[in-house]
Amino acid sequence: MTVLLDSDESTSPVVEQPRTLGPASPTSDKVFHGVTLAIGITVLVIMGAIGVFLGLQSIPTFQRYGWGFFTESQWQPEKDILGISAVLLGTFTIALVALAIAFPLALSTAIFISEFAPTRIRSFLVSMVDLMAAVPSIIWGLWGFFLIQPKAIHIAHWLHTHLGFIPIFQVDTDPDAAIWAQSRYAASAFVAGIAVAMMVLPMAAAVMRQIFSQAPAGEREAALALGSTRWGMVRTVVLPFGRGGIIGGTMLSLGRALGETIAVVLIISPAFDIKFRPLEVGSESVSALIAGRFGEATSNQLKALLTAGFVLFVITLIINTLAAMIVSRSRSGALTD
Amino acid sequence: MTATIDTSFNQSQGHTSGGTLEARQVSAWFGSNKVLEQVSLTMPANTVTALIGPSGCGKSTFLRILNRMHELIGSAQLNGEVLLDGQDIYASGHRITETRKRIGMVFQKPNPFPAMSIADNVTAGLKLTGTKVSRSEREALIERSLSRAGLWKEVKDRLREPGAALSGGQQQRLCIARSLAVEPEVLLMDEPCSALDPTSTRRVEETIHEIREQVTIVIVTHNMQQAARVSQQCAFFLAELGTPGGIVESGATEQIFNDPRDPRTADYVNGRFG
Question: Interface pTM (ipTM) of the complex?
Fold first, then answer.
């Protein structure tokens, strides 16, 4: 620079300025960017609007019942006693039963499809599992009610007889009676949980399978070349890699299981007791309560039902957000972004 | 403590010796595409055999056939025999896991198990093959395997750290240590230095020199100088346009580089193509 100035003193000094560049992206890119951004924001706005609507509708209920709304177990609008503690407990009971059944099934389905199934039948199995997700929930409800319940009663009775000393397997009846009370084991959170499990299984299995199939080929080969069996390879490479997907997929299914409605309405017989006895007759979930009481509700009861819905909305939102965070922070999740 | 280490050291070293690997008329296909035709090669015990040739000539496929990694690819098929100390590794009675344990492999891209510590990486093969060792044996084995791979001095104070924290060259030597820990008779190396810098490459080559007393080594390399430096025997692979790959010429490395019989070998080793 100095050299230039010295030798060129006669002419005006050279002033260096950054040159102007053309637009970095063409107009078509900008339009596309704008459209996708707008759609993305719309999704957030809809989500937020639901939350705000439910929140606003809940204010009168919270003002009237206060914390009692969370601690009261009964739902008796005619006596002006409204609370969701029993319903929330029932919601989680059904969801946990569903997860306890769906998790091992989904995990082994995903492992089998991604690691052991012959290539020829792999895509067939994938579409079969996806097809499970396409079955309407009412069908799963009917399936649970007519096909599974008669069998599940016996499983529940067996569990009560042999593992009844564990509190969660208790039922308030005598299991050893000559003619044991079948009706005490029917319409339970256990039966509803089986139906819900079938609904959440496809999603959990799909998330896990996708993450398993991304386990690095180099590490898989390293394990096999050391003399490992396929199962050993799955244990040392695929499962540690897919841990985020396993947890995330399970929590996503939990979010889905908490909100499942129609199958629960069909199977469960409403009961508002604070108890954790999945095998015993009677339970209730938030969504089943809303579906069951919606038609006959007065305006105040309707607001109370919306409040229960708001609580469920917040809980599932928290669970799904946690799931998304866990998935994206794990090594396998980083690849799925 | 030292005494225990020393005994197990000697015991384990006692049964470590290379095996002779012999490929007989090996052909290979991917689907209907034939990639290797009638390849026969003997890889004698305790020597380093280098497989050289341009890309796509089938040398990596051949290497993967030697420890049954070839069949992991869905459409892959093969014909012929591979004998380890006279026994066909593809015979129906042979367990594939046992074969792969006896014939280890080091890959082009270093692939330590990232979730495991350096020490656990070394002993991963024992765990995977269900081999039980006592704690003192395990420690001795970790030290011996890392020493043989030329990595012990660099990592002895951080064995608990994850294997992924090492540099690329150290990771590759960790992978060599991991392979050596299961006491293989043969070690296959698929371009082990192609992702490494010159210094790391030199360390790996030194490692090869040191371990060939105990292990038969077969190495695929694109680097002519490396083949000349590390190997005693050399096989030149070539696939002419539209035909499956095969061995043009094989023999002592000196002869292949200084006095090749086939003009195509001469052209290749002198850098006139490939």
Answer: 0.88
